[in-house]
Predict the 3D structure of the following.
Amino acid sequence: MNADPLEARLLDWIARPTSAAFGDMLLEVHAFQCAANPAYGNFCAGFPAPCSWREAPALPQRIFKEHAVRAFPAAETTRTFRTSGTTGEGYGEHHFRSLRLYEAAATRGWELAGLGGRRVLALLPSSAEAPHSSLSQMASWLCPDQKAFSVRNGCAHWAELMEKLAATEEPVALFGTALAFLDFFEWLDSRRLSLPPGSLAIETGGYKGTQRALPKAELYAQFATHLGLEGGAVVNEYGMTELSSQFYARGLGTPHEAPPWARGLVVDPATGREVGEGETGVLRLYDAANLWSVCAVQTQDLAIKRGENFELIGRDPAALPRGCSRTADEMLGSAAER
């Protein structure tokens, strides 16, 4: 099955997205993946054929640690990103035949979330410094001048850039992990930096692999204290190595919103059915831009259903039904890696 025409149509849709097309496109991507990836096809064979995007079988996130999840021949792999591997469960890998869809989803999703029109400063290593990090790759697209935080540049360099920009009228978007921002605030100590009007901070990730943790309300208070950023000027980016799209929430206690080519579904871990409004369940993500692996991923995160969106609670592996992972292994079978 030739994926090139499908990739081209997806790229065109992301450039000019309409939410109405999501269901049909997701099911088309799902059908392609079932045919192109025998392992995923075996997995889906254990479920009824989906009639809507909500019924597309979601592959447990941990499978990326144990199987090569590719909807294309392995020899055509051009890039592989890895998860952090800080939970003691090993690395997950996401293989790409092409990065065109990932770049389009990341950059267009950033714009649709209202984050564009700002100079991006990344408190992250560049893709050259961290070639297996999908987050660094995304940051490098958003920050082409490579003004990135690293061991080489350090907090002093980043603070100097912000102080120079404070004298301009060009708003900035500060993009980094929660841990990196915490390190930066501790380095600032009692200092307060000014940013141009319209500036934002976009924080992502958490404190994996460290003994440090800070409640989100306390972290966001430090954005106000050190950078003068309050309320909706601090944004959480929720994404994962296993996907190609991102979800954004402005301020505290607000739901994450999906771009038109993705959706989040909060399901009951015991039944797999969508929970009611305001109820808590396990988060299942659908991403039509994730052409080269799977378009539906069962996460290990808890969330609350908020209309068509979700309010993220956090990771809870115990929330996953125990039978789900066992069945996944059985359904994947012994399909040969292509």
